[in-house]
UniProtKB/TrEMBL annotation:
Residues 12-397 form the Cation/H+ exchanger transmembrane domain. This is Na+/H+ antiporter. The chain crosses the membrane at residues 78-104, 110-130, 150-170, 182-203, 234-251, 263-283, 303-324, 336-360, 372-393. Na(+)/H(+) antiporter that extrudes sodium in exchange for external protons. Belongs to the monovalent cation:proton antiporter 1 (CPA1) transporter (TC 2.A.36) family. InterPro entries: Cation/H_exchanger_CPA1, Cation/H_exchanger_CPA1_bac, Cation/H_exchanger_TM.
Amino acid sequence: MRAVGTILVLVVLATVVATGARRWRIPAPSLLVLAGLGVALVPGTPPLHIAPQTIALVVLPPLLYASAEELSMRDLRLVWRPVTVLALGLVLASAAAVGALAIAVTGLPVPMAFVLGAVLASTDPVAVTALGRRLALPGRVQVLVQAESLFNDATSLVLFKVAVGVAVAGAAVDWPHAGGEFLLLAGGGSAVGAAVAAGVAVVRRRTADPVLETVIALVTPYSAYVLAESVHTSGVTAVVVAGVVLGRSGHKLSDARIRLQLQAVYGVVVFLLESVVFAIVGLELPTLVRELPGGTGWWPLQALAVAALLIALRILWVLPLTSVVKPVGGTASWRVAAVVTWAGTRGVMPLAAALSIPLVAADGTELPGRSLVLVLTTAVVVTTLVAQGLSLAPLVNRSGIALEPEHTAREEARTRRRLAGVGLEHLDQLADLDAAPTAALEQARRALDARLQHDQQEAGEQGQGGGAGSVLAAYRQIRREVIALQGGELRRLYEDHQISDTTRRHLQYDLDREESALAEGP
């Protein structure tokens, strides 16, 4: 009962703080971490202990899935090379550098030092997506930091398993075995994710019930995660692959009404889970610090040193790659590198990994240095979420690479005019063929003309003489045909790189609302 009460309090606290963050235009993860830290420091606050499987199984799958669905496949095809370099090379370099630094400044045993390096080697997709969601980053830059955080899991997870195995058993590193395990985790997780996506696609094509569709969408990430973990592959990779595949084909699997409902439901789920999990990060740190053994009082400086090393190393890796993702307009590479570096924060996944470190070694003795690894991991996560999170938006604005609101507005207006033109061309064809009632065509034309002029007034549904019902039915059918044509044109403009992913999503949402209103009309 106490656990249920704690969860409810966390939900209320996180919701209030996240709502305030939106109102004050402060990144929600940063403010939530500070709020959790502040609550944990209040005298009398009970210690918080979160089981690692709670975060890994309950929280991560839907957040990863939602982030993967948002990934622009078009832009990913343009930046897959730097994403691969960061997801493989930077993770390996970060793990080695943090491990070496930990040996030098923390006194951790060598195996546990490299466990710390493996835990902190990769950026966190939940934090990266949450921080970047409200920034007007160019498509390639946003996809680079988001895709890197989604696809570096297999690398860091293999390193983590190898390092923990050495720390627990005291055995030497078997690199050929580690390479095979990487292929199993990455390849097996990808295969499971693709298989789950294919199965879900088959089911959703044959389902028209909004409630059932919503249940399927909520269960999909958990199914991919559990299935992958049960066959000893990467559950996180499976969820990401399933999300990317289904996100790309979502418009073919359901109608507008169901898509709108899924967006609303997932918006609530993501908001609640993100809010609670970032508050937990702040709440965990004081509890972990109180459990530290004596002689570890230098942990704040050690955590700052590790965070500084991760940022410096990231700059060195990112700078040579930014020419690939340079926005149109010739913005200097160092400005892009600064934004990409600062957007790569640590977050929920490192915390979940650190909590899963075994308590005892193979001989039954307490695993040395585990508590310090937990504290340093959480402290680095808090540092990056607060320091980078609060300063990321000002850095983006000062860098000159942010998309101006006027730019987005002009692109949307231009695309709306193009879609309205496609609809009017279709009406002209119907009129030439005498394929629909004149009254219905005129009503549809007035609606398109109003949209073309940014008039939000809905077209009237008054009939003209007898047969008003048939005219209304014909009008709705014409509007559905026009919306289908406009949706196809919207996807063509996106695939031809004429509009951004943000514009595509906004206008597709508008088309879905329009189509849903037609279905709900009298």
